[in-house]
Amino acid sequence: MMRRRTTLASCTALVAALALGTTACGGGPVTAAGDGDKLLSGQTVTVAGVWSGTEQKNFQKVLDAFTEKTGAKTQFVSTGDNVSTVVGSKIEGGNAFDVVMVPQVGVLQQFAEQGWLKPLSKPTQQSVDANYASVWKDYGSVDGTLYGLYFKAAHKSTVWYSPDALDQAGVEPPKTYDEMLEAGQTVSDSGLAAFSVAGQDGWTLTDWFENIYLSQAGPEKYDQLAAHEIKWTDPTVVKALTTLGELFKDKELIAGGQKEALNTDFPGSVEKVFGPEPEAGMVYEGDFVAGVAKDQFGKKIGEDANFFFFPAVDGGEAPVVSGGDAAVVLKDGKNQKAAMAFLEYLASPEAAAVWAEAGGFLSPNKKLDVASYGDDVTRATAKSLVSAGDSVRFDMSDQAPAAFGGTKGTGEWKLLQDFLRDPSDPKATAAELEDAAAKAYQD
């Protein structure tokens, strides 16, 4: 699985670095080639990822900027959510993509273990070392070898609210989890439910759990649970489920109660707060809530829709849970040179700035000027993500085998939906989670 690059591959990486103006050998920036020197002209990079709609259009701007810089053409294929199935089929058919944008740590590890990936070039590794907190390198590595470059990230520790709803209730954005529940009760007393919960989508419930667990149990326990080094029956898990259950069982805090929450998907949960007929004052989810509020409901971010960071639980540190998409190079792709050059470009602040200016994007690249983002709210979430450094923790369910952490109707998604339906026995839920996790990690 650990593959050595040949001297020729190293030279190719150096040529690509010269074309892109990156740091090639650990010194200062290499002088970029002139506009007429399109060293990758005539080559095409095929890139696959889950993105569609607005995200795909904005990523196309990054692809177009790479073409302008290098002369290489690009072709993007949207895989939908079944990335591993699509990629596996293409490899088996002898028509592998050159680059894949992988949305889950567990899938990246799976690809590496199956021998599908090439280690990233030396210039890309140098950029990661210089421009990223080490936690992002860890999440992109398998057995000490760097395969994945995290280009796009999400800040999944944000609670979005209607300023009008909080003003009407006379409450300020809370600083602690207990204060958040108290503020929610005051909002509920004023006529709106406190929270809209997207229980139809099990992944949103895993995010609720992960933020509580990270703050309450701490990062060391979080890492152990993510790797299944401790069992889901651990007292810290039962405690976090108990804390989450206090919210789930309070019908005054959740719009429509548990039954309606289980019939509400993620876009619907945002609509209940920012749509034409609001039913709740707040909705928890990542920074991408802003895109739905803005694009679908015409809200001006920072005025009609705002956020506070997920508050600290039981005296712990405020959590910073993230997700993201890592670019990897498939070893069976037909265009290794252009693929490696593309990742060297993605590792640069220049590439991140293209999408940052377009909106709907966060970068873990600490060299990206936050002025590149188009509004103060996005700048605030970007600053929080980068300043968290190595305390950032990747979405736990995305680190797990898909059978446990990423499959509709089974594993953690289903069991937390069952817990939302009946949160009366956290110990029993923890035992069920452990049974499912043990099977998935063993398989």
Automatic annotation (TrEMBL):
Top-level taxon of origin: Bacteria
InterPro entries xref list: Bact_solute-bd_prot1, SBP, TAT_signal
Keyword Ligase found: no
Keyword Transport: yes
Keywords: Signal, Transport
One Pfam entry name: SBP_bac_1
Signal peptide: 1-24
Family as reported in the entry's similarity comment: Belongs to the bacterial solute-binding protein 1 family.
Record protein name field: Carbohydrate ABC transporter substrate-binding protein
Organism: Streptomyces himalayensis subsp. aureolus
